[in-house]
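Deliverable D4.2, example record:
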Amino acid sequence: MTAATRETTINLRAPAAQRKLIDQAAQAQGKTRTGFMLEAAYEKAQQVLLDRTVFALDARRFQRFVALLDAPVKTSKALSRLLARRAPWDQ
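Output generated by the structure prediction step:
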C-alpha cells in the first residue's frame, strides 16, 4: 500500500517491549511496522467478524441440518469452480 492510497490515520500507544517485538517481527518479514501492524490487525478483524455468524434452529431443523452436514458431499462442476476461486478477502 502506498501513501497515496491511504485515507485515514490510526494512532496508538504501546509499551516499549511490545513495540520492540512488533518491530522485530516486521523486520523478519521485510515489512514496515505500519505495514506489519495493519496486515495483522486486518487479518484478525476478518477472523473475528467471520466467526460471528450465529443462527438458531429448533430441534427438528437442527437434526436436519446435522444430517445434511453428515451426508456425503455431492460434487459438481460449479462447486469445484467456486472452491478453486480465491476468497474476496484474500484478494
